[in-house]
Amino acid sequence: MADHIFEDIATLTEHYPFLSTVNYSVVKPHIKFAERRYVPELMDSVTWGTLLDESVSGRAPDARWTNLIEYTRDALAFLTVLHYIPHGNVRLSQGSLVVDSSDRTAPASKDRKNDLMRGVLEQAVEHLDYVIKHLNANADFFTNYAASEQYEASRASMINFSDDFNALYPLGTNRWVWRSMKPWKNRAESSRIIATLGPPYYNELLTQSKAGTLSTDNAPIFAKAQAALAFATIQLALENTAIRIEEGAITVYNNASQPANDLRTNASANTAQNAIDNARDEASKLLSEIEKTLLAEASATKYSTYFNSSKYVAPTDATAINEATDKIFNAL
To answer: How far apart are CA 325 and CA 190, in angstroms?
Structure first.
């Protein structure tokens, strides 16, 4: 069994070719760090161990293992580089930090280093998604993964991947941004989506979505609930986190770290508040539409789980439904 996903520099440079002149012993600590930090989020320990075995077995493994090895190596190569870059040409010498340079080369500027890290990060997070999606698509083959908490976590929400979120709220978001917003997404899902649908009907929608069996009635409800969740997540993220929307992503912003030649400025308070208000209004509008549909159409044969839940209240007429739901969501 291999100890690490990359046992030599040659294998690593197959996935990130710009490290060919770097000694393996220099990058090995960053390989180990990337494995410890990210692999437990991707897969269970048994699947990881088998992957390492297959990667050095010398035999031709099943194509599903071959692809998983390649996707995982792609992700961990870029993540290794991401954590190596800040240390690449810096060393300790007699109690001080020294930056190495020569007559032919010089250390990259701070802006160039930041550009490189952004580029590496962008690809790394996409590769992470490829790993999880490959495992999920072949869960019947990767049986240990299918029984793992990682598999359940990857399907635990109405929105699980950055590209799903991006289709609903187009920010060019990648997985790294999605990680930073996940706490607010979880809160929004509980406080807005589940609170509107009720736990029984929410669970029915989620179960059908996981299985790819959303009914004709449930599919449009699920789609609206997904969109509402995206807007509610943005609302909470903007209200509670020191972030701003720029360059097609939600990013943490710190004035002190802004490069001197960076002419971008913080969004005004009015602009930020408008973004919050718009996200809140759109989420409320979608949830109000869902509520009106369910209250008006739920019966023993249509939306029956909602009909039989404590969320359902028999309406007296259509006007009463509209007035009641408008009051609820206008107050949010």
So the answer is: 19
* C-alpha radius of gyration, the chain, whole number: 24
Alpha helices in the chain (DSSP H): 9-13, 24-42, 45-55, 63-84, 110-137, 143-146, 149-153, 162-168, 175-188, 195-197, 199-211, 218-240, 269-297, 304-307, 318-330
* Helix (H) or strand (E) segment spanning residue 327: helix 318-330
Helices vs strands, H then E, count in the chain: 15, 4
Q: Residue ranges per domain, the chain?
A: 9-92+107-153, 162-330
Amino acid making up residue 13: T
Retrieve residue 53's tokens: 């075995």
Return phi, psi of residue 248, to 5°: 70, 20
CA-CA distances (angstroms) from residue 52 to 1, 8, 81, 142, 304? 6, 14, 20, 14, 48
Q: What is the pLDDT of residues 52-111, one digit of tens each?
A: 999 887 665 789 999 999 999 999 999 998 888 876 654 444 454 344 544 455 455 566
Strands annotated E in 41-167: 90-93, 96-99
Q: What is the mean pLDDT of residues 259-280?
A: 68
Dihedral sign for Cα 199, 229, 177, 273, please. negative
Residue ranges in 192-303 assigned as alpha helix (H):
195-197, 199-211, 218-240, 269-297
pLDDT in tens, 126-170: 899 899 999 999 999 999 999 999 999 999 999 998 888 989 998
- Comparing CA positions, the residue from 253, 213, 222, 226 lying closest to residue 237 is 253
Tell the residue number behind the tokens 């929410």, with chain if given.
Answer: 202
- Nearest-angstrom CA–CA distance, 131 and 69: 9
* pLDDT(50) > 80: yes
C-alpha 84/C-alpha 314 separation (Å) is 62
pLDDT band of residue 122 (cuts 50, 70, 90) is confident
CA dihedral 292, 296, 301, 306 (to 10 degrees): 40
Distance CA 132, CA 150 (A): 9
8 Å CB contact between 242 and 253: yes
